[in-house]
Design brief:
Blueprint: E1 9-17, H1 24-33, E2 39-40, H2 43-48, H3 53-57, E3 61-62, E4 64-65, E5 73-74, H4 83-87, H5 91-107, E6 116-122, H6 126-132, H7 144-151, H8 156-164, E7 170-172, H9 179-192, E8 198-205, E9 214-215, E10 243-251, H10 252-257, E11 264-273, H11 286-300, E12 309-311, H12 320-331, E13 339-342, H13 345-348, H14 355-369, E14 371-372, E15 392-393, E16 399-400, E17 408-414, E18 419-426, E19 440-447, H15 450-466, H16 471-480, E20 487-494, H17 499-506, E21 510-512, E22 518-523, H18 535-540, H19 542-552, H20 559-564, H21 572-592, E23 597-602, H22 606-613, H23 619-634, E24 640-644, E25 657-664, E26 667-672, H24 674-682, E27 689-690, H25 706-713, H26 736-739, H27 742-750, H28 755-762, E28 767-771, H29 777-782, E29 792-794, H30 805-818, E30 847-848, H31 873-890, H32 908-922, H33 930-933, H34 937-968, H35 971-989
Parallel strand pairs: 6-7, 6-8, 12-13, 12-17, 13-15, 22-23, 22-28, 28-29
Antiparallel strand pairs: 1-10, 1-11, 2-4, 3-9, 5-30, 8-10, 11-18, 14-16, 17-18, 19-20, 20-21, 24-26, 24-27, 25-26
Length: 990
């Protein structure tokens, strides 16, 4: 078992794209198979790269390299880029942005708004130099600053921080070939210094045209035959490659405490420079490299004899390899019996600014899996390296890790110019067993489009079908570690099921989109209760249990016994306080889950829950009143209640029968004595239904208790409501005077429940309705109204439903989230300790956004430049002009009147150009904030109309003044004034 110093850093996530591998998993499979990603380019690829026939015929030309395919494709819409802006964005920036997304997603930390630092590096931007500079195919309307911001590698880290909403330091690091390993060093230091709690570190090197090949020169560093053979007798140079990789790092103790999946542990890192101790600026130094390796060993407190593998810089150059072996031999003061050497450059070429992180990923996977990666190309050691007289060797085949101690590896990165970096990695600690989770879990997915959501769902189902991961961990990762996008899916699954069964459940998931809406709570009244209501919630949800226990402590009976006893729940003195306790506790659970009501409506006794949550009553006073209310009603003579499928206004009620509730446009409840209700029911022409109630609530039979109850209410302190709720008495919003008047609560017990009227008042705004109580009575009634597109959900199952309470609760939480409600998905299991696990990555919807090389055959691309043209304002008016300007400057062929500027990829710099064009073409000057306030063409046209209207009165006044002056002039004075004006114009024109 390894001992930790407290300075270790955990590798908790990684992502990358390499020559021949679009994911880290594919990359590792290629490493184990010795599969090279360096390949020979086709004639078509060379044509597109602008390679002439004459150049191809040159004996020194090598049409090979480590190309990264698909760099011209990018999910511009997801990251908010217009096609025009995407086309000029450095492919290094876009590919690294997608890689950063996948790396944080792999780690389960893509929630956004976190204290995440970004440390990144990139190679020289050849896209700007080769593809964009002085190229007439570049979309029009771009300013030099636009091209600079889109291509300056200084913006690499900040761009990621902006688009992924990361609030830690964002630093671009440039030290040539060692850059990305230095980013890891800087990130580790930042974590140890608490500059951030999570760090993303990596690099990208994409140098288009990537299918160009290269020119070999005798004595140069580039291989003559397109093969990179580090430390081999036939080694004669390196091959250029293109790629990207990023790792996610955390302090080890934090990663272990939070249940992160750990792939490797960084024991220590070091960085230095050769100084002048070498033959030239670009030459490597034995002493400089040896010092940095020794420093990393010392900082790691690791004996060099325990290191079983070194991922070398390994460029296969005549000078580089011998110096590197000499430095390693010098640095390993306690040499191991045997230590394997390898270099990823043999497979993917030299990734320049991304070379270090590529080697780091390879070494991390090696210590995680306990496999020393093979170097199948190796035949015999380069005699200049002295490998035979060192503890180092190159293995042709994959082999088990040597030794019995912790698996440890070194990673080297040496930059041209002398900045050296080295890291020491160790195998991850064994994951701690997690406690059992809840019996039910919520699986959630979201995506930027319906198509991407469908693909995400398919990928997750395929993963679960073969995975042994805990459903609780899968649910936790999906709920807390992913970005929330517009198109959403949820599925509630049983924890006892296999992941394969959960995969099947995904096919029956709820799917949809929703704009943000407030949630209103409905609290049902007596009649909705049943034995065992919410018992399974009480068993598994601590927040609900705590609130229920708080209520139980204030009641004169054993609440748990009553909730389990069907007979006692028929007694009003038990039913009303028991219902209150369950609904209050449910509301507290929903609040814990982030669902807070903007308004509330209770049915009968349910209004007491609303009033308590609104602050009218304290919990103690509310339970005191509800208990007294139930006891007083329980002591009254029994009565009957009847549900009638008619609206309240359609009822003709005889003496002794009272309207008890107006529930829906065609649903009412009446109450009275048994005899009166029986006679009334017999005379109805519609089918009615007797309710299972003990008394005739909200009828004249309640009158005897009203005085005593009003006196009890006057003894408690009443406050103005802090949350608006509907009055059952008036069917509209309760006033502060009503809520704080004891007489109101007495009238409330007697008056008809105006639920239907209250619901209609509540639905004047766009809301989502949530019933907070047992069953779905109020949800059913709500759906009998015009909900104007609103959704209505229940919290607990109907008593006749054979399902778990949490099935209903979690389904409601998920469907609220789909509908656009604020739901804190992480809070669903905040009391549990769970693990973040790797899951399928987001399916980017990439489209081609590219400017081809000048002089090459153009290919069809996504960017469509709409050239300026005269627009007939008489036909299309301002809207046509605005739309034409947007189409041209955004590079989008078709824009609708209600398309959002920012969703189309617009930004503040482009907005100033658009407003300037509007001023030039329509003669209206708008303030800088106009597009932010009116972000669609139609709204902007309305804003222009308003601007003209605001200016019109002043213009009219000026015209009227001039007319008045002219009327006051004599003909001679008017002729003289016109002559002076004509003379002035002639002078100005001359």
């Amino acid at each position: 078992m390894t001992e930790y110093t407290g300075l270790e850093i955990a590798v908790v996530g990684m992502a990358g794209r390499f020559p021949g591998a679009s994911t880290v998993d594919e990359f590792w499979a290629n490493v184990l198979a010795g599969e090279t990603g360096v390949r020979r380019f086709t004639d078509e690829e060379l044509d597109a790269a602008g390679v002439s026939v004459e150049r191809r015929a040159d004996p020194g030309f090598v049409p090979m390299g480590g190309a990264l395919d698909g760099i011209e494709f990018f999910d511009a819409k997801l990251f908010g880029y217009s096609p025009r802006d995407a086309a000029v964005l450095d492919p290094q920036q876009r590919v690294f942005l997608e890689c950063a997304w996948h790396a944080l997603e792999h780690a389960g930390h893509l929630g956004g708004g976190q204290d995440v630092g970004v440390y990144a590096s990139a190679s020289i931007d050849t896209y700007l130099l080769r593809h964009l500079w002085n190229n007439p195919a570049v979309p029009g309307g771009l300013q030099p600053l636009d091209l600079l911001l889109a291509n300056d590698k200084d913006t690499l880290a900040s761009r990621v921080a902006y688009h992924l909403d990361l609030t830690g330091p964002a630093i671009t690091v440039q030290t040539a070939c060692s850059s990305s390993l230095v980013t890891i060093h800087v990130a580790c230091q930042a974590l140890l210094g608490h500059d951030c709690d999570i760090a993303l570190a990596g690099g990208v090197s994409i140098r288009p045209p990537v299918h160009e090949g290269y020119q070999h020169t005798e004595g140069g560093i580039l291989a003559a035959d397109g093969r990179c053979l580090p430390f081999d007798v036939d080694a004669h140079g390196v091959v250029a490659g293109n790629g990207v990789a990023a790792v996610v790092l955390r302090r080890l103790e934090d990663a272990m405490a939070d249940g992160d999946t750990i792939y490797a542990v960084v024991k220590g890192t070091a960085v230095n420079n050769d100084g002048a101790d070498k033959v030239g600026f670009t030459a490597p130094s034995v002493n400089g490299q040896a010092r940095v390796i020794r420093a990393a060993h010392d900082l790691s407190e690791v004996d060099s004899s325990t290191i079983g593998y070194v991922e070398a810089h390994g460029t296969a150059t005549p000078l580089g390899d011998p110096i590197e072996v000499a430095a390693l031999t010098q640095a390993f003061v306690s040499p191991p019996e045997a230590c394997a050497l390898g270099s990823v450059k043999a497979l993917i070429g030299h990734l320049d600014a991304a070379a270090g992180v590529a080697g780091f990923v390879k070494a991390a996977l090696a210590v995680q899996n306990g496999v020393v990666p093979p170097s199948p190309y190796f035949t015999a050691p380069n005699p200049e390296t002295g490998l035979e007289n060192s503890p180092f060797f190159v293995n042709r085949e994959a082999m088990p890790w040597p030794g019995s101690g912790p698996r440890r590896a070194g990673v080297s990165g040496f930059g041209m110019g002398g900045t050296n970096a080295h890291a020491v990695l160790e195998e991850p600690p064994s994951p701690e067993p997690m406690p059992p989770g809840r019996s039910r879990h919520l699986l959630v997915l979201s995506a930027a489009s319906e198509k991407a959501l469908e693909e995400s769902q398919k990928r997750l189902a395929g993963h679960l079908a073969t995975s042994s991961q805990s459903l609780a961990d899968v649910s936790h990762t999906l709920r807390t570690g992913r970005r929330v996008l517009r198109h959403r899916m949820v599925a509630a699954v049983c924890g006892g099921e296999s992941t394969g069964s959960a995969a099947t459940a995904l096919s029956e998931a709820w799917i949809g989109t929703g704009d943000r809406r407030d949630v209103v709570f409905l609290f049902p009244g007596q009649g909705s209760q049943y034995a065992g209501m919410a018992s399974q919630v009480a068993d598994e949800e601590p927040v609900f249990r705590a609130a229920l226990d708080e209520c139980a402590a204030l009641l004169p009976f054993d609440l748990d016994e009553v909730l389990a006893d069907a007979d006692r729940l028929t007694r009003t003195k038990y039913t009303q306080p028991a219902l209150f306790a369950v609904e209050y506790s449910l509301a507290k659970l929903w609040e814990h889950w982030g669902v807070r009501p903007s308004a509330m409506l209770g049915h009968s006794v349910g209004e007491y829950v609303a009033a308590c949550l609104a602050g009218v009553f304290s919990l103690e006073d509310a339970l005191k009143l509800v208990t007294a209310r139930g006891e007083l009603m329980d002591a009254l003579p029994a009565g009957a209640m009847l549900s009638v499928p008619l609206g309240a206004d359609d009822l003709v009620l005889p003496q002794g029968v009272c309207l008890a509730a107006s529930n829906a446009p065609n649903m009412s409840t009446v109450a009275g004595t048994f005899e009166a209700i029986e006679r009334f029911e017999a005379g109805l022409s519609v089918t009615s239904r007797r309710l299972h109630t003990s008394h005739a609530f909200h009828s004249s039979m309640i009158d005897p208790m009203l005085g005593e109850f009003a006196a009890l209410v006057s003894q408690v302190e009443l406050h103005e409501p802090r949350i608006p709720f509907i009055s059952n008495v008036s069917g509209t919003w309760i006033t502060a005077e009503e809520a704080t008047e004891p007489g109101y609560w007495a009238r409330h017990a007697r008056a008809a429940v105006r639920f239907s009227e209250g619901l209609r008042a509540m639905l004047t705004d766009s809301v989502t309705v949530l019933e907070v109580g047992p069953g779905n009575v109020l949800t059913t009634l709500a759906r009998q109204h015009d909900l104007a597109g609103a959704k209505a959900f229940g919290s607990l199952r109907h008593p006749r439903e054979d399902k778990h309470d949490l099935d209903t609760m979690l389904a409601a939480a998920g469907r609220l989230w789909i509908a656009g409600a604020e739901v804190d998905l992480g809070a669903l299991t905040a009391d549990e300790r769970r693990r973040r696990v790797p899951l399928p990555q987001y399916p980017f919807e990439r489209a081609r956004h590219w400017v081809d090389l000048p002089g090459t055959a153009p290919r069809e691309i996504e960017v469509i430049e709409v050239l300026p043209q005269a627009i007939d304002t008489a036909v299309g008016g301002d809207l046509a002009v605005i739309t034409g300007i947007w189409q041209e400057l955004l590079g989008i062929a078709r824009i609708g009147p209600n398309d959002d500027y920012f969703e189309l990829g617009g930004h503040s710099l482009l907005a100033t150009q658009i407003l300037a064009r509007i001023t030039a073409e329509l003669g209206v000057t708008l303030p800088a904030a106009a597009i932010f306030e009116a972000p669609t063409p139609s709204k902007l046209a309305t804003r222009i109309d308003q601007s003209r209207a605001d200016a019109a009165p002043a213009q009219d006044d000026e015209f009227a003044r001039l007319l008045a002056e002219i009327r006051d002039m004599s003909p001679e004075e008017l002729r003289a004034e016109l002559d002076r004006e004509r003379d002035a114009q002639e002078i100005s024109q001359s």
